[in-house]
Structures are given as C-alpha cells and as structure tokens.
Specification:
Elements (H helix, E strand, L loop, with lengths): L1 E3 L7 H14 L8 E3 L4 H11 L5 E6 L1 H14 L6 E6 L6 H15 L5 E7 L4 E5 L8
Parallel strand pairs: 1-2, 1-3, 3-4, 4-5
Antiparallel strand pairs: 5-6
Helix pairs in contact: 2-3, 3-4
Length: 139
C-alpha cells in the first residue's frame, strides 16, 4: 500500500506522483493500493490505521516533517502492528540524523530495517531530477 501525502494541488508533484502511482497500480501483475490523502494529517492517519494491517508493506511518501509527524503519531497511538513501513520523501533536504532518527523509531517499534529514500527535483515544474538508492547512502 502506498500513502501519498504530498500536497495535492498546491504543488504539481503531488498530483504527478498520484497519477504515476495509479498507473503502476493499474497494471495486471502489480498488487498495490494507492491512497492519495495529500497533506491532510487525520486522513492519512485514518487510512493507515484502518487498512495498513491488510498489507505486508506500507510506503509512506511525502514532505519530511509531515511524514515524521505521521510516524510519531502512529507509534504513539500503537495502532499498526506487523507492517513494514518504508518512507520516500521529497521537497526538502534533511540531515542524516533525521534518517537515523526515523530508522531507529521504526526499528524499535516494529523490528525490521526500514528503507528511507529521498527524491530530488523541482516541484514547481514537476521535474524529477533523481532519487536515492540504498547504495547512495553509503557515500
């Protein structure tokens, strides 16, 4: 399951990401559900609380401070169990301490190695310039 919490309408990235996700989810050999909540905190929380346990993995995509708040809230409420949550962020850089904090938060709660990746681009023109791979974090 993918939760798209990028702003929908304010910046074109949220809408373009939503369209791309829906295009992938509509392929016959892909089993994926997409929820485009935008930056509506309560909607994202409700979707995750009500549906995340039905999936092996959840990808939470969005703006780093917003995603951090969602993960902290979910862990505080202890509403999801046995779900691997991974994170994809964009729109703002973050220090490696942020990644370390988020990794520790998820590992402590759920005992797995989360993937946290960042995309690089220009949201105002919808241009994706690149994205991290797990190996790029090593350099």
């Amino acid at each position: 399951m993918v939760i798209n919490t990028f702003a929908l309408g304010t910046w074109v990235t949220g809408v373009k990401f939503a369209r791309a996700l829906c295009g992938v989810a509509n392929k016959k050999d892909i089993k994926m559900t997409v929820a485009n909540t935008g930056m509506v905190f309560d909607s994202a929380i409700k979707i995750i609380e009500n549906f995340a346990d039905e999936y092996d993995q959840v990808l939470l995509a969005g703006y780093p401070p917003f995603v951090k708040g969602l993960v902290e809230e979910l862990i505080e409420k202890k509403t999801i169990k046995n779900v691997e949550m991974h994170i994809m962020v964009g729109a703002e850089s973050f220090p490696e301490e942020w990644r370390d904090y988020m990794t520790k938060l998820l590992q402590t709660q759920y005992d797995y190695e989360p993937t946290i990746l960042s995309a690089y681009g220009a949201a105002d023109v919808g241009l994706e310039l690149g994205y991290e791979q797990p190996i790029t974090k090593l350099f």
